Amino acid sequence: MNNKLTQFLDEAFKPYGDFPARKDVQQELLANLTERYNDLKAEGKTDQEAYDQVVESFGDVSELMENIPHEKAGESKQGSSATVIENVKNFFKNGDTRFRATDLHGSDLAGTSLVDGNFSMSDLRGTNFDKANAQGARYRAADLTATSFVGANLTDARFESSDLSKSNLSEANLTNAKFGRCAFADAKFTGVILDGTAFSMCDLSKVSFDGITLRGTIFDKSSVSEATFKGAVLENVSFHHSEAKKTDFSGATMDKITYALLKAAKANLENVTIK
Question: For 54-79, what is each residue's pLDDT tens digit?
Answer without folding.
Answer: 887 776 777 677 766 544 433 444 44
